[in-house]
Design goal:
This protein is mainly alpha-helical. It has helices at residues 13-23, 34-49, 56-65, 75-81, 88-95, 99-109, 119-132, 139-153, 163-166, 176-181, 187-197, 207-220, 230-238, 248-255, and strands at residues 31-32, 72-73, 116-117, 161-162. It is globular. The relative contact order is 0.10. The structure holds calcium ion (CA) (4 copies). One calcium ion binds at residues 24, 26, 28, 30-32, 35.
Length: 260
Amino acid sequence: MANAHLKNIELSATQILDIWRHYDSDGNGFIEGKELQDFIEELQQARKNAGLELSGEMKAFVEKYKQNAEGKIGIIELAQILPTEENFLLFFRQQLKSSAEFMQTWRRYDADHSGYIETEELKSFLKDLLQKANRTYDDAKLEEYTQTMLRIFDTNNDGKLGLTEMARLLPVQENFLLKFQGVKMAGKEFNKVFEMYDQDGSGYIDENELDALLKDLCEKNKKELDINSLPAYKKSIMALSDGGKLYRTELALVLCADDS
Ligand SMILES: [Ca+2]
Ligand SMILES: [Ca+2]
Ligand SMILES: [Ca+2]
Ligand SMILES: [Ca+2]
């Protein structure tokens, strides 16, 4: 019973994953709406039954999301309020504070530029993260973390992490890719757009060309995108570039809906 874990003093990464799966009942990668209200209610109940007070983080969380129909959380927000024994998921929170940092990290660890983080790349990412956080680990632990990561984030079960899958390491508020989900284009249209905004025909989009593209996108998609966030969008997307040159493959990760 996943909700039985809610009264635990400390949770392992696997138990958090159980809780996550239980409450994200439609499996869309977020706990939202009724799922979130159920979670809040059962969390309060479980703590009460166990004779435990809500922690400060939990109280703030309940305050923020109770009766909030718009509320939507990712697994990082969940890990943040639950008492975690290994704090495994929280390393990410400490290391990846913004979308731009996340995109830079992505670029660094997708070493073969395949557009995916494969198992070996994921391992090297986790290894660096553990070292940075001064955690001791052995090969078995590294393997366990790698597999847990895949179980949590590989939502389409192809054994590797795509940009959007891995972006769930970001808190929902910081995840600008979520906003771009709704404005992604089919491959053909994307190619046309790329050529149109590559105004000097250099074969890549530079910062000024990206600026023009994003302005038009914001104009066209006022519901999804906010023109005031344009500098932040630009910074995050440019973090994928190769020294200021944004090639087709990298921009496609953000704007193209076709998976190839
Ligand atoms: Ca859900
Ligand atoms: Ca790769
Ligand atoms: Ca995947
Ligand atoms: Ca250009």
